[in-house]
Amino acid sequence: MRTSELKQFAPRALGWVPWVTLFAIIVGARLWLISGYGSALPLHDQWDGEAARLFKPWLENSLRWSDLFAAHNEHRIVLSRLLALGLLQANGQWDGLLEMTVNAVLCGFIGLGVAACLLRILGSEYRVPVLAAVTVWLALPYAHENTLWGFQSAFYFLLFFSFLAIWGLGFFPAYSRNWWLGVIGAVLACLSMASGFFAAGVVLVLEAIRLLSRRRRFSEAAPTCVFCLTVVLLGLCFQVTHPPHEALKAASAGAWLKVFARSLAWPYCALPILIVVMYLPWALCTFLMARTSEPLSRSRTEILFAMGVWVIAQAAATAYGRGEDGNIAIASRYMDILGLGAVLNALCVVALVRSIPWKGKRRATALVFGAIWIAGSLGGAAGLGFQKLSSGPGKEALLPMEENVRGYVATRDRKYLTGDLPYPHANRLAELLDDPTIREILPTIVRPPLSIKIRHETGGAFVANGYSAEITNPPYEKTWGSYSQLGPKARGSMESESFRSKLPYLQFEVAGSLHGAMSLSLRGDETGKEAAIKLKAKLNEIWRSAIVPLPGRNVRIIAHDDSAEHWFVFREPRELGRLGYYAQRTVSNGKNLFIFGLVLFAIATAGELLTPIYKIEKQHS
Questions:
Q1: Within 13 Å and on the Cβ side, how many CA atoms surround 29?
Q2: Are residues 328 and 259 in contact, defined by beta-carbon separation less than 8 angstroms?
């Protein structure tokens, strides 16, 4: 690139590269985590919350509008239900991996939205700290439960729409475009989780402070106050209790206070005394807000104050509802919210250093302490994230669950429901798996395979269970392989009877050596086209997975083995939805997307360094 072209490119890069970088790093990091730890197998509440109470009535045309608003535990997760229904309808199949993938992308857009809204208030000079803080907040894996459980979209909806509500209602004139966005955000936040009305409550607190300090006329604040008060009252009226969870509430005021302090000491949750350190920047900014009269500085401190109040309120509610005896671990699923508190405090550090007119040693001291605070928070968050991953169950813990559910689906033998399960009650899980409507939409990983019958074969090579003793295969898995009485020396081919799949992709699981003189493919009856099965994805140490699109409505399996030294075996295939296929492809490229984001970060950094040079040379020219 020529020097003149580089000079022109640098300012343009600063316009779009940082935003693409933020999105790529956040989404790439979450997809990378899913690729290493995720499974399409639904977990825990999904079986009742989605399969039994949502998908089954939807597919049987008995779902009512009121069912979307019905309580799930203490929450009304309307938006999560609509998202799950949309994915089921579009994919034709229930798929936890697809839900996780969509949540990861949703998280990237949340990062873009939060950063853009913050910069609208804080100003462009805060671009670097805002983009950096938001990227780190949503990319680190400390909230892995939300990333690895497709059912957790409610937390993301709560975060985004609460932020939108506080931003729009709290910082723009009544009836303006952004104010109406805030109205929408406040309503949708209430349809996300039980604490959704907190956002409207925070705006009420902010408006009350403005009225008491005579910074706002009552006529200006009245529309916002009336709307927010209505939302809060409706939110309180529609609160529900879930009797089985009553035992999870804080047993005493001391237990509540302990969990509350540990939550706000995040990421150092084991040291509740550090709440003083972690929220000191926010407290100082709040003090500054009370003293400053300059509009821009006041708006900057107010947005940080308001969002800080929201995080504190969420932590207080969580400590009350899940505090028990005060000694429980802070669950990973709450840490996206608690992490936002650290982001706000980091921005408070930046605001304090920028706004307080200190000079000489005092300013240098402030810079040093600010840098120590940010480094400590960043290091603690990173350490917490990787500690959560190392101490929690890995993907290998899900394999027995997948195998047990597969076994029961294939045989309906209760012995398969005595081991590790994705649902705590075996009898209830069996009831759900026996339901014909739910069986029709099961994810590929546990779905009943398509029944394959041989139409024609030559050489006697391909036989049922044709594999060597070194291969382990559950008795319920029907296989066809070229390891026959002659061992690997057998040569021949097979063609199955024609069959039809309800979904556009088939997933094959193959063991042995499918290469060279051996092939496995699908052939369309009407089209005559063939789709070869090539092994790329690794399912486990022995069996490998391959996904192939259907080359026609009615297809046959064609297998050839012309090798005297090698053999291969395949299980009966399972159906896979189109979006489920795209989700698998997307997840497998999560690491690449993350690296791409880092490369863009390097480009953006170079652009930041080149821009001042470009401006100076332009002035001289």
A1: 23
A2: yes
pTM of the model: 0.91
Same domain for 375 and 358, yes or no, is: yes
Per-residue CA distances from 27 to 101, 108, 238, 316, 453 (Å): 9, 5, 34, 29, 43
Q: Are residues 114 and 55 in the same domain?
A: yes
Omega within 30 of 0 (cis) for the link into 267: yes
Amino acid, res. 506: L
Q: Are residues 74 and 130 in the same domain?
A: yes
Is 621 in contact with 21 (CB distance < 8 Å)?
Answer: no
Q: Which residues of the chain have pLDDT under 50?
A: 1, 5-6, 9-10, 614
Number of domains in the chain: 3
List Cβ neighbours of 386 (8 Å cut-off, separation of 6 or more). 141
pLDDT digits (tens, 9 = 90+) for 317-373: 999 999 999 899 899 999 999 999 999 999 999 988 887 666 667 777 778 888 999
> Over the range 398-436, which residues count as b (16 or more CB within 10 Å of their CB) and which as e?
beebbbbbbbbbbeeeeebbeeebbbeebeebbebbeee
Contact 57, 134 (CB under 8 A): no
Task: Determine whether 616 is exposed, middle or buried from the number of CB atoms within 10 Å of its CB (0-12, 13-18, 19+).
Answer: exposed
Residues 365 and 428 in one domain: no
The pLDDT score that the predictor gives to residue 213 is 83
**C-alpha closest to that of 449 among 491, 508, 489, 400:** 508
pLDDT at 81: 96
CA 599 to chain centre: 23
DSSP bridge pairs for 546: 508
In a domain, 154, yes or no: yes
Classify burial at 581, counting beta carbons within 10 Å of its beta carbon; exposed 0-12, middle 13-18, buried 19 or more: buried
The residue range of the domain holding 166 is 38-391
Q: Is 587 domain-assigned?
A: no
- Which of 380, 404, 434 is a domain's end point? 434
The widest CA-to-CA distance across the chain, in whole angstroms, is: 93
For residue 605, the model assigns a pLDDT of 72
pLDDT at site 617: 53
